[in-house]
Amino acid sequence: xxxxxxxxxxDGLGDRPSKELGLMTPLQAARKVAxxxxxxxGMTGLLDPYAPGVPVGSDTGxxxxxxxxxxxxxxxxxxxxxxxxGVDLRPGDVAFxxxxxxxxxxxxxxxxxxxxxxxEEARELGRAVAELAEGFDSVLKFEYHPTVxxxxxxxxxxxxxxxxxxxxxxxxxGVRVQMPRPTEGTKAARVTAEELSRFLLxxxxxxxxxxxxxxxxxxxxxxxxxxxPRGGGxxxxxPSLAERYGIRSVVIAGGALYRGVCRAAGMxxxxxxTATGTLNTDLRAKFEAAVDSLRAYDLVFLHIKGTDTASHDxxxxxxxxxxxxxxGELRRHLDAVLTDAVVCxxxxxxxxxxxxxxxxxxxxxxxxxxxxxxxxxxRFDEVSCGRGSMGRMRGLDxxxxxxxxxxxxxxxxx
Amino acid sequence: xxxxxxxxxxDGLGDRPSKELGLMTPLQAARKVAxxxxxxxGMTGLLDPYAPGVPVGSDTGxxxxxxxxxxxxxxxxxxxxxxxxGVDLRPGDVAFxxxxxxxxxxxxxxxxxxxxxxxEEARELGRAVAELAEGFDSVLKFEYHPTVxxxxxxxxxxxxxxxxxxxxxxxxxGVRVQMPRPTEGTKAARVTAEELSRFLLxxxxxxxxxxxxxxxxxxxxxxxxxxxPRGGGxxxxxPSLAERYGIRSVVIAGGALYRGVCRAAGMxxxxxxTATGTLNTDLRAKFEAAVDSLRAYDLVFLHIKGTDTASHDxxxxxxxxxxxxxxGELRRHLDAVLTDAVVCxxxxxxxxxxxxxxxxxxxxxxxxxxxxxxxxxxRFDEVSCGRGSMGRMRGLDxxxxxxxxxxxxxxxxx
Lengths: 414, 414
Prior knowledge:
The structure is a homodimer.
Chain A: E1 4-10, H1 26-29, H2 34-41, E2 43-48, H3 58-65, H4 70-73, H5 77-84, E3 94-103, E4 109-111, H6 119-135, E5 141-146, E6 151-157, H7 187-208, H8 211-218, E7 226-234, H9 241-245, E8 249-252, H10 256-264, E9 268-269, H11 283-293, E10 299-304, H12 306-312, H13 316-340, E11 341-347, E12 350-351, E13 358-359, E14 363-368, E15 391-394, H14 398-405
Parallel strand pairs in A: 1-10, 1-11, 2-15, 8-9, 8-10
Antiparallel strand pairs in A: 2-14, 3-4, 3-6, 3-7, 5-6, 11-14, 12-13
């Protein structure tokens, strides 16, 4: 029996058929060898990350697939994003996911991602916001951490810190940004809303006059002149994978959120410096790190974000090509990995490259390795795997299935 | 992305194979073009209206498929039937489903449906029962509403009205009818049982001597000489489909129950005067009304009862022929509808035309439209759809799946 598991998690993998690809999904249209080999040599099925027809975010999708029911453990995206950014969150700390965005003088939202600002420019602007936070005179303590591109994390500490305030990010452009309001009648919620509003107004002043934004304006680019918090929450406490299964586990991911969810599950994080969390990531280095990690870990979770990025950009052909690139890298290692590990490939949710949105369609899953049942599905895609021997199952059950293949699930009963 | 959904709900659609049809189900035996086209161009699967192997009624089946867990919202058939009959139920009102039946002098049940009495005759008899109710001297207020054929609704109002009494209808012929008994120790249950018993005995006297029954006896038909309440309950409060999904929705159905469940879900009711809720319904008018309703509504729910009626009558060939008629009417509109709507066809439960009873076998489901995944199933029936890419899912999840296809389900997480 193998004693290792490699999970290849392709973000936003599931899709819907498009005319551009002859009424196929990107996964159906892709020429792929390694992914189809996993399907051919193993068992396949469809996975509802949370429940049929319910679109999940990457946070709730990953929690489910790692075996944590979001109903019990999801307290908003902020804490997971903060963990992923390496922020040391303590009990009672409140964290928000933040977008650096472009707003006009009346705070109407012009661009939620500030023209998809580069990580380098956003970091330079982020340093100014972090300095503002450090010196900010308030009963609460503020901390700002830029992560990737327009994304960042805002942490609020103190006895009166509360997650119970409205999202500032309206999620839609053309809408006026509203300052945070308390969502419950506590003093903490009121104080947090007031102090956070004051901080956001000051941050806009700092960002407006920053040289990076002057330069962006000169180049005809949208200035990143506001930070928009959302998804506030208090850090959840998850029973670790080590407690549950007695395993050593590690994640390799470019995006902060994925590292955060996995760290919350007690996994180690292996940094691949050239992993970017976007389409231009260093797939070769990530796969090499994953294969190497199988020597020291029982579970290696390799997360690749670009499939989701291409979907959000509504580019099914780009997604198809990126899947082919992933397949090419996987192919270099697959035979070796399958000699002593179980390999599982799946996604955390469907992102339609027709409308660029998350949807509740199930994602395909394929698992191969010694001792794994073989069905007669030979292609890894949303339709072929629907005929597979695993049937349609919930994401919440996947980790038990994988851990049981390496004999790590305790018997229920005797 | 399409922004409309047409649900074609064929009551009691699922069936079991019969020798009469060469070991096929009526759906397998039917020659059908439009239904198979939906399967060919879309995705298919099997739906357990409630749970595998659990036969559901039309009420619990419809609640589930509209997304309302009967465990939370089902308080007996009476309130839904009453809503469907246009009765204005107020909080605290208790409603019972009622059969007009034939009993002998000792209240032994001879015919549960009084020889499938016509709607016209039952209404005339019902008026006499309604008059009795209006003048009935009691601490409770009684109200009687005949609906279709032998069916009716009995409403009991007042502070001491209670749903906690035994069903009077024994559900089986040849058995002695028992007057209602309280099922809990409250004063309301005791008073309701006593007053309801008194009312039922008086109703029998009124019905026995009614001219309609004299005429029926002369023609050799069973008299409708008793009313048998069952399924007592208090009106449930359902969160509407508009609240859940922000949609405008409408039902087209001949039967009172189906209109009632849908009205409870906040749907509008479009009346087609020639829709009868039986095999002789005006299918053409119903389909035309449904297609027309797609202009003003986001969700159109077209319910057809005849498939279930034929099953209860144990006539598989009649069911097959009726399916072919439905298919012919659907065919006239399908291409036009599919240009901007998602079409879903399914049933609310299996009714076996072998034994005329509801069963817990799953029902087939097929969904087609722009952006819907295509599997390689090309026939719409209980067996072919079992190989479809939707797998086997719960009825409770269907509405999320449909609403997600038109982008109406909010993301859980970010």
